[in-house]
Specification:
Elements: H1 3-29, H2 32-43, H3 53-57, H4 59-80, H5 86-98, H6 105-122, H7 130-135, H8 140-149, H9 154-183, H10 190-208, H11 225-245, H12 253-258, H13 267-271, H14 273-293, H15 300-311, H16 319-335, H17 343-352, H18 356-362, H19 364-381, H20 392-429
Helix pairs in contact: 1-4, 2-4, 4-5, 5-15, 6-8, 6-9, 8-9, 9-10, 10-20, 11-14, 14-15, 15-17, 16-17, 16-18, 16-19, 17-19, 18-19, 19-20
Length: 430
């Protein structure tokens, strides 16, 4: 078997194993009957931000829904592409995280179908659009909203929502390419920025016809200690497994820390699977500990946020470029009017690491500034898309990066010129 094929086979095995852990974990929290009833509730509930599936269907049902989404995402990817890289690992685990608060099979299918239809119409290979097919489900809540909140009979709501979903899938790929140029790759959740633009236009159109999508804040209020144990176990196992398979060493991990993380930064291709697995585990541990230290609740959105950090630790994030963002968001949380332990504040920190490439490129303090600015924007920008874009932090991050990066580049250029001028002056005096 070719080396690349062996590596990809190992990655798929690890992904299937993680999906199985989520599946069997669901029955730790609830009985099979409770899980199935809760899963049905999840499928038929409007799912715009912030809808915690742990509050809707129970903890077990939320884990079951996440495992379902993950298995389907792996199967779609595997059926189209034998080899797999960091971007696809990030996509699969990211959509799994969002299956704790907004994504399910019902509201994801039409957008994915639309993306594949776009590829067929354009004459592209389906495997070339795997990423937008997975990431594009950020707008899944719109499908659920149209079906279950607009007062239509089910069949009519189903047909309208699926047509809308397919149309979104048809346009999201070309729009995403344009949006990437807007923030120059310094916002890792480019699909979130893309979905925010599309969602903003759709919601604006709906409001013209007096169709309002109501803001919600349905979150699980308890703090089940078993969730914390499960997360720490998963991420510790990642680090240990990667360490053992990496010949009992952290070799390659230091190279990851040297990468700015700017898109595209595929750590698996650049540094190998096992150093990347170590990085994913460490970032998962850092994220989980961040929530513990600030006294947050481990509900569906927070679990999704932690998984998203681990996901993109295969494609851009690492401790060196992510911790400054967390510091910036934390400082903003201390100074602003919002509760630092509230789910929305915690999510701003976890998902705010979408701006990690800024810290990776320009340094620790610019990273803190970007985290601070992200906190200022993310609480206000969700209104423009009515909560139908699950990747709201990616939407916010796109604007922060687009504004801040040109300033930082100019500052960097000025400092380089001043240093050259000083060096020339010093040589003249000598």
């Amino acid at each position: 078997m070719h080396f690349r094929d062996k590596k990809s086979a190992q990655i798929y095995k690890l992904l299937y194993f993680l999906a199985s852990v989520l599946f069997f974990s669901s029955f730790i929290f609830n009985t099979p009957f409770e899980v199935l009833i809760g899963f049905f509730k999840i499928l038929v509930t409007p799912s715009n931000l912030l809808t915690d599936y742990m509050a809707v269907g129970g903890i077990g049902a939320a884990f079951f829904n996440a495992s379902t989404i993950m298995f389907v995402s792996i199967l779609i990817t595997k059926s189209l592409k034998n080899d797999i890289n960091g971007s696809e690992v990030a996509a699969i685990i990211l959509v799994t995280g969002f299956a704790f608060f907004g994504k399910n099979i019902y509201n994801s299918i039409p957008i994915t179908l639309g993306v594949f239809l776009y590829a067929k119409l354009e004459g592209s290979d389906l495997k070339s659009v795997i990423l937008p097919a997975l990431f594009g489900t950020a707008l899944g809540p719109l499908i659920s909203e149209i079906t279950f909140s607009f007062g239509y009979p089910f069949l009519k709501g189903f047909l309208i929502s699926y047509v809308v979903g397919i149309l979104i899938g048809l346009i999201i790929t070309p729009v995403a390419s344009a949006c990437l140029r807007f923030h120059q790759g310094y916002n890792l959740y480019n699909s979130g920025f893309t979905a925010g633009i599309i969602g903003m236009i759709i919601v604006g159109g709906l409001r013209m016809f007096d169709l309002e999508i109501e803001a919600v804040n349905v979150v699980y209020l308890e703090n089940d200690f078993r969730i914390r144990i499960l997360l720490y176990s998963i991420f510790t196992a990642m680090v240990l497994y990667g360490f053992v398979k990496n010949k009992m060493s952290f070799k390659g991990f230091s190279n990851i820390l040297k990468n700015s993380g700017r898109l595209p930064s595929d750590f698996i291709s650049l540094n190998g699977l096992y150093p990347t697995l170590i990085n994913m585990g460490i970032m998962g541990l850092i994220s989980t500990t961040y929530v513990v230290l600030i006294g947050g609740k481990f509900n569906g959105p927070v679990i999704g946020g932690i998984l998203s950090v681990a996901a993109f630790s295969a494609f851009g994030k690492h401790p060196k470029n992510s911790i400054p963002i967390l510091v910036g968001v934390y400082l903003a949380s201390l100074l602003n009017i919002y509760d630092i332990t509230a789910t929305s504040s915690i999510l701003a920190g976890l998902f705010g690491t979408t701006l990690a490439p800024i810290a990776g490129e320009f340094g620790f303090f610019p990273g803190i500034i970007s985290g601070f600015l992200h906190m200022a924007l993310v609480f206000n920008i969700g209104a423009v898309h009515g909560g139908i874009n699950l990747y709201n932090n990616g939407f916010s991050g796109g604007f922060v990066a687009a504004m801040l990066v040109p300033i930082l580049k100019e500052y960097k250029k000025i400092m380089i010129n001043l240093r050259r001028h000083y060096d020339r002056g010093s040589k003249t005096q000598i």
